[in-house]
Amino acid sequence: MSADLRARDAAMHGADPRPLVLHVMYRFDTGGLENGVVNLINHMPADRYRHAIVALTEVTDFRHRLQRDDVSFHALHKPPGQGFWQFPALYRLFRTLRPAIVHSRNLAALEVQLPAWLARVPVRVHGEHGRDVGDLDGRNRAYQRVRRFYKPFVSHYIALSRDLAEYLTGPVRVPPARVSQFVNGVDTQRFQRPGEVVGEKAVPGRGAQPIPGCPFDPDRHWLIGTVGRMAPVKDQLLLARAFVAMLSAAPELKAKARLVMIGDGPLRAQCQALLDEAGLTDLVWLPGERSDVPAVMRGLHVFALPSMAEGISNTILEAMASGLPVVATDVGGNADLVSAQISGLLVPAGEPGPMATALLRLTREPALAASMGEAGRQRVERDFSMRAMVARYQGLYDRLLGRVGA
Q: Is the confidence at residue 83, as pLDDT, over 90?
């Protein structure tokens, strides 16, 4: 950490009575985990806590999603592998910033808990948000041992789904009293059903809206879409294969069905090649990463999530808030969000056939799709509001710092 940075932080926060929460993750870039951090900071009352972001690798332009100007960013440019050599730098950073809480997320950032303990950070929280492609079922013994090694240095855990909470209290052997199960929240104003805006209120029920730059017309086409980082654990290849299988089973739908895949990553080129080889180039759109995800959601008719592993998916919540029926793989916390046969359909991971069947059913039954979308929107408004999520995190921070009632 440079002298200029230390001086800036001291000037910015030196006399600030608000406790500092240091959010630590592997990389601060477009993603569901990072989007959850942004939502938490943007919606938590500014008079209660101040915040800083530490990325073990890079902080990207995604930082501009934060709407507060009192958040500092620290990128440590860590190379791949265990980061013991980074512990002195982390220790100095923690001693300089003096956070009240260090909140790390996922296994890739868990190692910061040891230097945080050495630096006498009062509260050390670790969140488990989902699984990696190297540990889809939680049985990786090496990962279990790593988590058990760092367990003494963690004050409290947050699990974003039931299976992750059971993993922590089971194989990792964390006492249940040290684990809280939280669910994400979604901004129901930013993500809402398509509708005509009258004043500041949207009137729903007028059908999907054209997606800027998209070659497909939602009035003539049936748009099946997904949004997310195109990496192996997200398995967009499954969705591409399911789309091919659906049109093979029902070739008459080639005039109507279209596939929209938003995101960038190593699977993007593979998906495009697979769809090109199937002769479906003109029926699919893979524009890469987009910053206007709410507009994308308002242009779809069905949202699909083909992941091999998930915690609590932000994109499922965003799709439900947008009034979309969801077809998702039955992994992680997806079943905690999607009420099967009510707000969407759950299918096995890694199998194109069942996903193709589910997509075909909703394509042929648009009234069923609409009713599922409405049920999803109602569920979000009832159970997954942004206000409730922020209250859960703020309440935990207050309790761990002894600030209850502050």
A: no
Tell me the backbone φ, ψ of residue 97, rounded to 5 degrees.
Answer: -80, -25
Query: What radius of gyration do the chain's Cα atoms show?
Result: 22
Kindly state the tokens that stand for 142. Answer: 């090496």
CA distance 273 to 280: 10
Beta bridge partners of 126: 104, 157
Q: For residues 236 and 307, what is the distance between their CA atoms, to the nearest angstrom?
A: 7
CB 52 within 8 A of CB 20: yes
Q: What is the mean pLDDT of residues 12-29?
A: 86
The answer to whether the Cα torsion of 207, 213, 217, 218 is positive or negative is negative
Q: 62 and 35 in contact (C-beta within 8 Å)?
A: no
Contact 218, 299 (CB under 8 A): yes
Q: Note whether 124 and 117 are within 8 A (CB).
A: yes
Which residue's entry shows tokens 């949004």?
227
Give the count of beta carbons closer than 10 Å to the beta carbon of residue 125: 24
Q: Distance (Å, rounded) from C-alpha 386 to C-alpha 406?
A: 21
Query: What 8-state DSSP symbol labels residue 55?
Result: E
Owner of token pair 């910061």: 112
Tell me the per-residue pLDDT of 29-38, one tens digit each, with 9 for 90 and over. Answer: 988 889 899 9
> 384 vs 45, 164, 195, 318, CA distance in Å?
18, 18, 21, 10
* Structure-token pair, residue 8: 């800036």
Distance, CA of 215 to CA of 210 (rounded, Å): 9
* Secondary structure of residue 201 in the 3-state scheme: strand
Residues 77-100 have a mean pLDDT of 89
